[in-house]
Fold this protein.
Amino acid sequence: MTQLSQKKILVAVSGGIAAYKAAQLVRDLQRAGATVRVAMTEGATRFVAPLTFQALTGNPVATQILDPSEEHEIGHIELARWPDLIVVAPATANVLAKAAVGLADDLVTTTLLASEAPVLFCPAMNTQMLRHPATQQNIAALRARERTFLVEPDAGELACGEVGAGRLPDPPVIVDAAAAVLSPALLAGRHVLVSAGPTREHFDPARFISNPSSGRMGYAIAAAAKALGADVTLVSGPVSLEPPTGVECVPVVSAADMQREVNARSSDIVVMAAAVADWTPTTTAEHKRKKGGGDWSPELQRTPDIIAGLAASPKRPVLVIGFAAETEHVVEYAREKMKRKGLDGIVANDVGGTDTAFGNATNAVTLLAPGQDDVVLPRAPKRAIADRICGWLTTLQGSNGNS
Ligand code: CTP
């Protein structure tokens, strides 16, 4: 299962320079499992040929209203009824204005008016046009409308040479926003805390103990929980990833930092996906240790077991979910770990062999919970695994009887 599997998405392209990015967006929506059709305004066809989208989608591209040949392929009313979601990308100031007042003078605006599907507008334009009170009023009117959503434009260098807000966000951001619109809000009103990445335990400012965790699995879980409507906090060790949109990110370095930040927040669900270092130096030197001549046997002590502490605390979250990184007897060791740490569920993760989960874009896991059948998830992209994990969370009962 992928983020948008079985979903039908109509991408409506309007005439801005960012129209070229719509081709990549179509590809990314398809990769996320969606079936995509494309409609274009007259202006958009001057930036990108309809044939590009026809080749990508394998479907004719709608550009004209009441055109006998196009109406023969799929009539405009049928096109309006077809999608689960309409994504307008890029949405020019002109299209936003027409949509705000309900003008229908071309195929895209007529389809918007004739459709009951939710609409995700992705505004992209010159900064001044975006800032203009008329555009701002139109955006506010659309935001206030039922089943209508907007992706904030990015700031940066624009095609017109100006620097400011108005760039079309990168396609993966739009794909996530589309998934969020289409996901049932199974975690609405829940605060989910996810830990991710490695921790670093410093000997001195220049040396530390750590592990190869990339943080990708935890970041994907944070994004998936957000898409299901949760308020999400990501407590993250040092990684080179951008936090998902709309997720609060709390950067930490050591296991002790991570424990402090996790315990400082009250959450309904905690998912400890972090690869917490198990040992830390008993002392951390303020300055870099000089090598000198000899060997060195540093003294290490155990780091606090964050998840076990949380599961035993009086402020225990409703669900405390762990990860078990194992290289052998994966499910057996994970089950034992779940019992020993008092968890409501555990994600058993095989990190052995050559196809290790560390740093990989894909993962294969088994989900274990007391009294429940094991759920085996074959190898899939980490975001797809994360979607399944979050769906599974909504089925679990906490050990204190709540769900
Ligand atoms: N964990 C934690 N605090 C630690 C170590 C681990 O909260 N100091 C959490 C991890 O985030 C994970 C779970 O405990 O959710 C299991 O982590 P893992 O490293 O597999 O287990 P350990 O308890 O460290 O056991 P071992 O290394 O002996 O297998």
